[in-house]
Write a structure and sequence with these properties.
Elements (H helix, E strand, L loop, with lengths): L11 E4 L5 E4 L12 H11 L5 H13 L4 H11 L3 H10 L11 E6 L2 H5 L2 H12 L12 E6 L11 E3 L2 E3 L7 H6 L3
Parallel strand pairs: 3-4
Antiparallel strand pairs: 1-2, 3-5, 5-6
Helix pairs in contact: 1-2, 1-3, 3-4
Amino acid sequence: MGRVDESRNLIAAACDENGNTTTSDSSDSAVTAAPDNDTIDQIIHEHQGKPGSLIHVLMEIQSENHWLSKEILDRISEKLDVPLSRVMQIATFYKTFSLSPKGRHEVHVCTGTSCHLRGASHLMESVQDLMGIRPGETDSDAKFSLGNGNCLGCCSLGPEIIVDGKHHGRVTPAMAEEVLKNYA
């Protein structure tokens, strides 16, 4: 599961010894509205009875919610009649799934070789300063999550920032603020 790291002011989910989900945040609580059970049930219903539907259900629910809480995983397990251990196995194996809250906008800075040679480390520093978070973290109002990747597939555009799947190429540290303003 996720972890609670109050020393770095992260919002994260964790399960206690009884399997209950707890969230912690040393600043004001961020509001991360979970999809209602009707939305979850509708997504599950669309895939029910189809072999291999578990990954599709997890992807669609995460797309709606930006993360997968313990309660959501329990509901998926129950509704698809798949053991919770299998649901957890899939949710923890694939990097695309998050068991801790994510911001409404996911920001990724490429740190691969090509982007690195073009100044990605300076771009990452600038983005971290602007957002007030480091890779793997979510800001306190759950607006942004920051990640990095070794290659995000557009080496000729580096260094680049990808926000919610949209590529912004040849971004300099001075341009980072303008890119992020579009998502504020």
